[in-house]
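Exercise 7. Given the encoded structure of a 194-residue chain, write a plausible sequence.
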């Protein structure tokens, strides 16, 4: 199978089963990374940062990033199209029959279950991102049984402090999210030069 076709198939399946938006695609992106080696878990955290700070839906932005990274401009076009195609198909199909069944208890229970599943997907993705952002994963892999003596070095204290500052800023002041993104990017640049 050509790489472009494999990209299209994998992201079509991702779009078909990632119910809940862009964050719900993260477990699928981690799985694709492990199976193909096209990108790393660190690349996924970079995708999230770029996708959150650029216009457009997060899942589409991440699919475009992967497509461009793997197959260039053609991949950047094919991958997001493959990601959104299942949604288009489902919306067209469902819109024709939903009016007839929207009061059905079976449909209401199915939607209730889907909400719980998408909450679990988003929580799993959030924990995966937190692990990459707040822990030195290279030390975690090396530490093994000697984890107890190296525990403070395992944490990325700069990232933890930045997250706390941004969280407190969000709770205390109601600034536009773009300001927090710009602030965090500037602090990240400063941390890298120290």
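Solution.
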């Amino acid at each position: 199978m050509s790489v472009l076709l494999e990209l299209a198939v994998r992201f079509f399946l991702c779009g078909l089963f990632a119910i809940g938006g862009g964050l719900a695609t993260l477990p699928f992106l981690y799985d694709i990374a492990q199976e193909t080696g096209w990108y790393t878990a660190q690349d996924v955290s970079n995708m999230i940062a770029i996708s959150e700070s650029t216009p457009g839906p997060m899942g589409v932005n991440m699919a475009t990033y992967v497509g461009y990274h793997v197959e260039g401009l053609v991949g950047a076009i094919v991958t997001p199209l493959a990601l959104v195609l299942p949604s288009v198909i489902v919306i067209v199909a469902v819109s024709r029959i939903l009016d007839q069944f929207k009061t059905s208890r079976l449909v209401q229970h199915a939607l209730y279950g889907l909400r719980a599943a998408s909450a679990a997907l988003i929580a799993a993705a959030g924990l995966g991102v937190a692990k990459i952002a707040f822990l030195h994963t290279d030390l975690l892999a090396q530490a093994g049984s000697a984890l107890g003596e190296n525990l403070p070095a395992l944490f990325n204290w700069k990232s933890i402090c930045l997250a706390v500052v941004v969280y407190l800023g969000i709770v205390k002041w109601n600034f536009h999210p773009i300001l927090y993104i710009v602030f965090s990017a500037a602090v990240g640049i400063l941390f890298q030069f120290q």
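Remark. Residues 102 and 135 are 45 Å apart (CA to CA). Students should compare their own answers with the one above.
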